[in-house]
Amino acid sequence: MKSANIQLLTFPLFKNTLKVYSSCLVTSFLSLLGYIISVLYISKLNENAIAASGLIESSLATTYVVCFGLLNSVTLLSAKSFGEKNPFKSIEILINSLVYTIPVVLIPCFIIYYSDSIFLSLGQPKEVVSYAYQVLFISIIDFPLAILSFTFSQFLLAQNYQKITVNITIFKFSIQVFLCYFMIHGFADFKGFGLNGLVYTWILTDLIAVLFYITFCYFKFLKSTQISSYSSLIKLGTLLQLFKLGIPSAIESSSVILVYSFIIVIIGWSGVHELTMQQVINQYANIFTTPFSVLMSAGAILAGQGYGELDKSKISIHRKNLLLIGYIQFIFICAVLLSSSNFLVRSYIGSESILTEHEIWITKLMLSLIGIKLIFDIYLWTNMGCLRGMFDVKSPMYIQVLLAYFIQLPCCYILSYNLGYGVTGFVVANIIVTILGAFLMNMRFKQQYINICF
């Protein structure tokens, strides 16, 4: 009888876990796919535009990693207010989150303003920097729209309005895929805007998304309430809490991407061939790792909702459900990587690659090892998300930052450069850090779960 009751209790929770996870997966995967398609469109431009796109990519990646890290706090507080079943608290979180985006938007503007000086000081060609800076300056218009769009999507995902977020993401992706090409290359008598066309497409799609989100939130949350003045909901304590929860995530994310940039430089010391191998591995790793990194987003939302309900059992059940989802995907993705690594590598590099047969074999082997590593990614990302959902944002930061700077970077330097293993050293260092991170995150979650007292 007790077993039957547990099954009745956990099946609806599993459906909810799957619903939240699949929504996070669709939004993340379509964003990544849209970026990959944009890169393919840009590859048909002239050499200066392609070179400038590399500088633009590095600037925007750093900028958005920091901003989205700061906005993780919106997800946590929104999920907690949903678990508390307090609609007025949810509205308060929404209003304060929108105010919170104002200082967050200033970060990319500051980075872009000084980006040309930074690139020139690093010895980049002046004409390429000038081209990149022109495009980046236009993208300042898109930053507020992109950050608002992300804020609304995180708030609604945590409030269990996954359907509207997924629909808007699909709509944005559809417009980007078809409009981006024509904005860049033109059509018939329309010559296109070149690299600027990519930014114009972002501005248009983000503007449409923000208008949809504002309309939905107004009718769903604001219109039905009896609040006379929404400005009265703006509270310094809530804003400070958003900063307090967001800063550790931003530090963690920016540190990881900074260390990765250093690692690329280290691999570059080994030559063009090693960089080419690393690029192949990196592109496929980004695609196949996305379903596992999404476990963190889903874990933060689901654990945050359970934390708001003051229900430890729900946090534990959602975590186990996410691990189960991760195992199922691991079997499928690992099988694809192990059985199709030759096809994947040769499809990417083409028939006229500079890589030798031995280097292609090494690349295939490293890609297979990345597939096996994913079993540890399941524990790493799931426990990290659940820890954040329980409002322990500092532990994941300490673990990730310390491992990145004191384990991954030294190991990569020794293995890739000193010992001359190149990209093999990078993959081995990555596996070591992932295993240690998974173990430490798992231990920290168990300790934090025991210490929670409602």
Topology, number of strands: 0
Poorly predicted parts: 1-9
Which sheet architecture does the biggest sheet show? none
* Oligomer kind: single chain
Number of helices: 14
| Whole-number count of domains | 2
**Structural class by sheet pairing and helices:** mainly alpha
Helix content: over 70%
Q: Mean pLDDT score, rounded?
A: 87
* N- to C-terminal distance: 28 Å
Q: H/E order of the elements?
A: HHHHHHHHHHHHHH
Q: What's the Cα radius of gyration?
A: 23 Å
Percent in strands: under 5%
Could you say which overall geometry the principal axes of the C-alpha atoms support?
globular
Structure description:
The chain is globular and about 65 Å long. It has 454 residues and is mainly α. The protein starts with a helix and ends with a helix. The N terminus is likely disordered. Helix 11 packs antiparallel against helix 12 and helix 12 runs parallel beside helix 14. It folds into two domains: 216 residues, no CATH class; 206 residues, no CATH class. It has 14 helices and no strands.
